[in-house]
Specification:
Shape: rod-shaped
Number of strands: 0
Number of helices: 5
Strand content: under 5%
Largest sheet: none
Order of helices and strands: HHHHH
Radius of gyration: 28 Å
């Protein structure tokens, strides 16, 4: 019988392989956990602050009133409100939804063919509310026009 003697070098090699294997397993598990977190979080809506949601509600309420008024007033309001929203609203995703509603209010005041349908407003309402769910603010997004 020819037995291979166990030398210190053989023991070190086995230990090194074990350490490298354990490090590789930990790295693979961390990557898998990160990928899983990303996969679950990729479709979630951003969560706006309560302050952003209150600003959004104020703009939406004004937009409803402006949409029934004369177009020149609506245009002045649209410019002023857009500047205010861009300066103060931190959540750009909610800001985009509010900007869309602002534009629709202006189009409705102008009696434009680009005015939204009731379904458009309903779809926007659901998404905008989703941005404010963690803030505890329920946005009221009414249909536009008189």
């Amino acid at each position: 019988m020819n037995a291979t003697p166990v030398t210190p070098a053989t023991r070190n090699r086995k230990r090194n392989r074990l350490v490298i294997g354990a490090a590789a397993a930990v790295t693979a598990m961390a990557l898998a956990a990160g990928a899983g977190y990303w996969w679950l979080d990729r479709d979630e809506l951003s969560q706006a602050s309560a302050e952003d949601c209150r600003l959004a509600q104020r703009i939406i309420t004004e937009a409803k009133a402006i949409s029934a008024g004369p177009a020149p007033e609506a245009e002045k309001w649209w410019e002023k409100t857009g500047d205010e929203r861009r300066a103060h609203m931190k959540d750009g995703y909610l800001g985009y939804r509010v900007a869309t509603y602002e534009g629709w209010a202006l189009a409705t005041a102008r009696k434009s063919s680009e005015a939204p349908s009731a379904k458009d407003v309903k779809d926007l309402r659901e998404v905008a509310r989703g941005h404010c769910s963690d803030a505890g603010v329920t946005l009221s997004v009414p249909p536009l026009g008189a």
